[in-house]
Amino acid sequence: MMEAAGPDLARRFRDEFGRPHELRVRAPGRVNLIGEHTDYNDGFVLPSAIDRAITILASMRSDGRIAAVSVDFSQRTEFETVDQSKDDDAPWSNYLRGVVAQFRKRGLDVPGMNLLVAGDVPIGAGLSSSAALEVATAETIRRLGGHPIGKTDMALLCQAAEREFVGVQCGIMDQFVSTLAEEGSALFLDCRDLTYSHVPLRFDARIVVCDSRVRRTLAGSAYNRRRAECEEAVRLLRAAGGGIAALRDVDPARLEEQRAHLPGPIDRRARHVVTENARVLRAVEFLKRNESGSFGDLLYRSHESLRNDYEVSCPELDLLVDLARRQPGTLGARMTGAGFGGCTVNLVRSGEIDRFRREVARAYMDGTGREPLIYVCVPSAGVSSEPVPP
Ligand code: GLA
Predict the structure, then answer these.
(1) DSSP of 219-246, one letter per residue?
(2) Crossing angle between the packed helical segments 353-368 and 315-325, to the nearest 10 degrees
(3) Is 174 a catalytic residue?
(4) Residue among 34, 37, 209 to mutate when testing ligand 1 (max atoms within 8 A of CB)
């Protein structure tokens, strides 16, 4: 599923809509380096945007309708901008519809538009193709509608679209990084007050993503269940006298003292979140001091916690992490994203990438019969848009 080259997309737009596009928008997918399942606990995350993105080509229409064509799904759909319904025959269009509904909910007009949507973010792989689609849609509406909406608000609007329209009670990480990332950096975000900083990635190592090719359709409901378990942990800790608003307010030592108040598996869910937040803070320090070995160790520890305490890994992701660990150039590896399938993120010394790729692919293939997709990612900038001169 490769993004069609620029002139091809422009030609395709003209073929579909009988006129040239006026705006081109690009919103990236992301890989989370560390800080998994912490965002909806008011915690810390450290993702990077990647050099894979959703592209939208757009033009205005005067009839209050949106006509959208997905290149990747070879499908066309049309709806009124005031229409609030879903279309489960074209599920990709629900991300667009959800974003449109959120603009309208905030009293912001959505113009009629022709949209051509294409992308090279693998779908359902934990690299946030859906957030990229939401952010690209929001940026298109912002530009064509002339709305002075800020970037943080745009990320929040997209998160609301995913929660209300798509029904996954996601945190803010994916939409935020797809909107606000900076080239060459990771984004350190405090998900409580949305303060952030860009931390340059200066390691002599590359970020390598291994896609297990395992896709779990149940991931949405399991995700919502984990959220509920965290809320339950907060409720029980509060009842036990801890004046806390979220798991973010608990440190590892205090949790150990209070764990007796939590039944299984709630105690382990809480331990993951609390220790993961502590790992993110240390990871940022190691990144600033350019200590790639110590940073990498935290990735391994994060994976163990996600596997044993949060229970969102799967045998294929565990195998990919084990195989990566056996390679001499690997500094760290873990599952990334919501889990239950999808990808691992690996930090691999620059001179060892070819061997890593070859050895991990071969051994994973031997172990599972599946061929993993392995990409080196370039930390990239957040959403951008470019009007086409008339
Ligand atoms: C998904 C969600 C994010 C975050 C991760 C897990 O990607 O969209 O908000 O919760 O899972 O860290």
Answers:
(1) HHHHHHHHHHHHHHHHHHHHHTT---SS
(2) 140
(3) yes
(4) 37
The Å distance, Cα 226 to ligand 1 centre, comes to 11
Distance CA 8, CA 13 (A): 9
Ligand 1 nearest atom to the CA of residue 37, by list position: 12
Residues 280 and 286: their CA atoms lie apart, in Å, by 10
| Protein residue with least CA distance to atom 1, ligand 1 | 338
User: What's the pTM value of the predicted model, to 2 decimals?
Assistant: 0.96
Nearest CA to ligand 1 atom 8: 170
**Residues flanking ligand 1, CB < 6 Å:** 36-37, 39-40, 170-171, 173-174, 337-338
Across the chain, what does the average pLDDT equal? Answer: 95
Are 246 and 41 in contact by the 8 Å Cβ rule? The answer is yes
CA-based torsion, 152, 153, 155, 159: positive or negative:
positive
> What pLDDT shows up at residue 3?
46
Q: Which member of 42, 72, 174, 211 is catalytic?
A: 174
Nearest CA to 284 out of 172, 177, 185 is that of: 185
Helices 93-105 and 129-145: crossing angle, nearest 10°? 50
pLDDT at 263 over 60: yes
Q: What pLDDT shows up at residue 4?
A: 47
Average pLDDT over residues 215-225: 78
Give the model confidence (pLDDT) of 151-165 as tens digits: 999 999 999 999 998
